[in-house]
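Comment thread on ticket #2218

A.B. wrote:
> Attaching the input chain for the structure job we discussed in standup.
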Amino acid sequence: MSQAPPARQVNLTEALRAQRTGMRTAPHKHWPHEQWTSMRTALHAEWTKLRTVPGTSWLLLATVALTAGLGAAAAAAVKCPYAGCGQDPAKVSLTGVDFGQAVVAILAVLAVSGEYSTGMIRVTFAAMPRRSTVLAAKAAVVTGLVLAAGTVAVLGSVLAGRLLLPGNGFTAAHGYQALSLGNGPVLRAAAGSVLYLALIALLSLGVATAVRDSAVAIGVVLGLLYLFPIITQVVTDPHWHRHLEQIAPMNAGLDIQATIGLRSLPLSPWQGLGVLAAWAAGALLTGGLLLRLRDA
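C.D. wrote:
> Ran it. Output below, let me know if you need it in another format.
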């Protein structure tokens, strides 16, 4: 007849089993909370850094002024003297986005490369060793600021177009309605333009993380944005011309602004914005991978 193990042995066995179970489950039990706390700390740190750098506010103001100002100038200059003149009033009013994106790119690049140039990135990584969290926090803060500035800029552009375009022939007699966010295509063009600027910021952030140097990163981003359209115009073969327009980040992304002649576009408006989103995702993934593999 078997005897029960002594109480001390039973308690020791149970304690060891509980300890092993706790070792397996404890790290996972608190992991989401610890991750959220780490992310919240990183967000606060990145927001503090960007908020206290004098250049940030000036670049955001320049984004709004340049985007809305050039949009208003384009709306005041373009003419539609006859019905069916072929001009897209929404795209005309949002012309300033073509130039405001350059300021957004500079803002996003400096959010990363500025720390590398001063050596402060080492302090950042010492305080927050998880580099992916730092990059995610930078992306979130920069995107939030660009979305806010882009919304103000685009609303100003649409308002300017609504006020100025009717005086230049964009009237009901010529087949045009006044610009209004109550119009589905105009709302899509306006909201899409804000998203376009945010994606440009993420693309620039990824490039800056990969190359680290401010001048090189700005040159790469502006080259991707403005050289592709020039190359597209040089290519005369219709097949390659259309293909380049489909993959160029600026050409494809700005299709979101079109409200007329959609069938003639190389891509639908949302497909075009998706191409830019793919460029931004690729840049961020590349930058994040290099950030993990290289020393600060």
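A.B. wrote:
> Thanks. Noting for the ticket: Residues 245 and 251 are 6 Å apart (CA to CA).
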